[in-house]
Amino acid sequence: MRVGVIMGGISSEREVSLNSGKEVLNNFNKEKYDVCQIMIDKKEDAFTKSKDIDFAFIVLHGKFGEDGIIQAVYESLDIPYSGCGPLTSGICMDKDITKRLLRSSGINTADWLSVRSLEQVDYEYLDKMGYPVVVKPNCGGSSVATNIIKKREDIEEAVKLAFKYDKEVIIEKYIKGDEITCCMLDGKMIAVIAIKPHAEFFDYTAKYSDGGTDEIVVQLEESLHKMVEEMAVGCWNVLKCEVFVRVDMIVENGVPYVLELNTLPGMTKNSLFPKGAKGAGISYTELLDIVTEASLKVNR
Hints:
Dna Ligase, domain 1; 3 domains; 300 residues; globular; 5-stranded antiparallel β-sheet; single chain; D-amino Acid Aminotransferase, Chain A, domain 1; 4-stranded antiparallel β-sheet; alpha+beta; Rossmann fold
């Protein structure tokens, strides 16, 4: 089977994708699969460069990667691909819609405000919600243009910055607690990773630089672990996830809050999902095989 590793892309997270793609290419089982690189520099590359592959292993991030568009492209080409389908990918890329669905399903997530212009910023609502708040692009990733804002007068500048990356901006109540991420593989939580960034929060540098953060596979206290697992599985079911996702949470005083879901988790040497898999006794090469086989079984 000829597997194309789909990497690069047109989003602000292209560099992350390139690093992830290199690791995937290096670690695929070459005795089992015929593996090639498919570099996406413009949207039409997905059509013109994918004609001779049997399976697309998508290692793109951001727009035209995690937003469901390229998944729809491969469905139109009748090429099986890794991860979630177009609808789930699009929903999970949109933080506002994700939070609305989670809250309507009784899954805990922090209060927030979504705005499409500076004029829509409701300062009275933010004052009532309380500071600090986190300002970020609604459909962004890798913490690009994400900032913790501690006072009202700094909101406008942070929102303007986020608007450079997206047409919609999320202003979310800052939850001060312990960051964790749940690695979900084929509907089961295989690992919980505690994230201890050396910076104020898990920003771009902390995520992708060597030594930027401490990330440890942990076994939470029994009742908390059960609560986190139920929430992660609940997210999987409500958002109709497939194959693998990462569910990011913050735990404040024993109470977990879901931040977001990543339907195409990073696969660099510093990325969380490979670390979680390793903690569960799954090597990087085995993880790629499991993801490929599980994706092929999905009825699309």
